[in-house]
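Tutorial, part two.
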Amino acid sequence: MTAPILTLIDLAARLPERRLEAAINEADRLDLVTPMELREELEARRGQRGVGAIKAVLDCGGFVLTESDLERRFLPVAARAGLPTPQTQQVVNGFRVDFFWPELGLVVETDGLRYHRTAEQQARDRLRDQAHTAAGLTQLRFTHWQVRYDPGHVERTLRAVTRLRAA
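Running the prediction step on this input gives:
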C-alpha cells in the first residue's frame, strides 16, 4: 500500500493528462491530498518520474477542482466563450454549485444523468434554480449531451448571457 501522493506520482508516469487531472481531483474530493499538499511534495521529489506530468497539470493555469469528467469538459468551453476561471463547488444561496462567477452573477450547473434523473433530484434542481433567480443571479444548466456533443451551443449561450450580464 502506498501513500496517495506516491500513487499519483506513479500514475502520472502512465496516465494521459485528462485522466491524471481526474485522479488529482478525486484524491482531493476524498480528502486524501489537496493540490497544495501535492505541489509541496513535488518540490521534494524533483526529477522523479511522474513529477513533471503532475506539475504540468497543476501549473497549466487551467487546473480547477472539479468532481466529474463532465465538469472538466465544460471548463475549456467556458474559456473559449471568454469567461474567466470560475469558482467551483462553492455554496451559493445554500446550495453547492458546479461553477460560479460572482463578478458576473452567473451560476452554471452541468447535469449528468447520475445526479439529475429522478423526480426528487429534478425537484431539488428547480428549488436551487429558484433560489438563485430570487437572489438576482442568472442560472444556466447544460446537459451532458450539450457539453459533449454540442459545445458550440454552450459557448454561444455563455457568450450571450455574459454580454447581457455585463450590460
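The longest strand covers residues 95-101. In part three we will examine how such features are distributed along the chain.
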